[in-house]
Amino acid sequence: MSTDLLDEVLGRSLELHPQVALRPEPFGALAYHYGNRRLVFLKHPDMVAVARSLGDHATLAATLEACHIEPRRWPSFATAFASLQQSGVVRGR
């Protein structure tokens, strides 16, 4: 992911889609979208914590900081949340 795209994704205001339910699992969670019927795996507990907290913070970057995610991991989270936005699990606010 290019630096410009990374900055753009980290600056997005996101929230968990209201039609998405998260079911905790040992590896993280299953995210089920009742509208489009997609099932997505969140493969780490940190991903779940960030997904649940998105609506409480201004941007994805602010959420990552609040969830104490190390900055070196932010690019992988940006990639993952860009994908989750495309699948409808999270949406812009």
Verbal overview:
With 93 residues, this protein is α+β, with helices and mostly antiparallel strands. It has a single domain (3-83), classed as Outer Surface Protein A, domain 3 (Alpha-Beta Complex). Helix content is 41%, strand content 24%. It has 4 helices and 5 strands, in the order αββββαααβ. Strands 2-3-4 form a 3-stranded antiparallel beta sheet, with helices on one face. It has a two-stranded antiparallel ribbon with strand order 1-5. It is globular, with a radius of gyration of 12 Å. The chain starts with a helix and ends with a strand. 22% of the residues are buried. The mean pLDDT is 95.
Mean pLDDT: 95
> Radius of gyration, Cα only, in angstroms?
12 Å
Task: Say how many strands there are.
Answer: 5
Looking across the biggest beta sheet, what order are the strands in?
Answer: 2-3-4
Describe this protein with a few key phrases.
two-stranded antiparallel ribbon; Outer Surface Protein A, domain 3; three-stranded antiparallel sheet; alpha+beta
Brief synopsis:
With 93 residues, the chain is an alpha+beta fold. Helix content is 41%, strand content 24%.
Write the layout of secondary structure elements.
Elements: H1 3-10, E1 14-16, E2 20-25, E3 28-33, E4 39-42, H2 45-53, H3 60-66, H4 74-87, E5 90-92
Antiparallel strand pairs: 1-5, 2-3, 3-4
